[in-house]
Amino acid sequence: MHSRTALILVRLNGAAVLGLGLLFWAGYARALITLHMALGVILVLALWTLAGLAWRRDVSGATVAIAFSWGLVVPILGVVQLSLPSGNGYGLLRVLHLIVGLGVIAQAESLKSG
Ligand code: HEM
Question: Which residue, of 24, 34, 75, 94, has the fewest CB within 10 Å?
Fold first, then answer.
């Protein structure tokens, strides 16, 4: 995949996933969580594509490894949220999931080739 394609996927999916997430937070559209997850997985795959392409351009291994692990953390946080009753600690997880999610988009933007 070309890095341009991956970046477009990141931007489109990033906007949709973020928009849906904020709706859930506000208490709406919870029936669309599966859609949020599916678009989120595509977002992470696009991040990993950018990380793989960056690796070939000899961007440092650490940068690539951080991007790879970052992509694992977001879905884990989201799915852990699903398994918890709302209440203690749940608010913190929400904030973490949002911040780490925004980090996926930020990393993708910084991995793109100039
Ligand atoms: C593979 C990627 C992702 C998966 C599997 C995922 C999964 C989930 C799940 C299951 C929930 C519902 C949790 C609940 O309320 O019980 C959720 C909520 C949310 N997600 Fe994601 N998500 C992903 C990516 C993202 C990204 C990239 C962002 C932000 C840019 C984001 C922002 C949010 C927000 C703001 C909420 C609402 C918080 C809440 O009500 O709990 N998510 N996500």
Answer: 34
Task: Evaluate whether 88 touches 55 at the Cβ level (below 8 Å).
Answer: no
**Maximum distance among all alpha carbons in the chain?**
45
CA-nearest residue for atom 2, ligand 1, is 40
Write the DSSP symbol of residue 86: S
Q: Dump pLDDT digits (tens) for 53-75.
A: 999 998 999 999 999 999 999 99
Pocket (CB within 6 angstroms of ligand 1): 17-18, 21-22, 24-25, 33, 36-37, 40-41, 43-44, 74-75, 78-79, 81-82, 94, 97-98, 101-102, 104
- Contact 71/104 with Cβ under 8 angstroms? yes
Of the candidates 100, 46, 106, 102, the residue with the CA atom closest to the CA atom of residue 76: 100
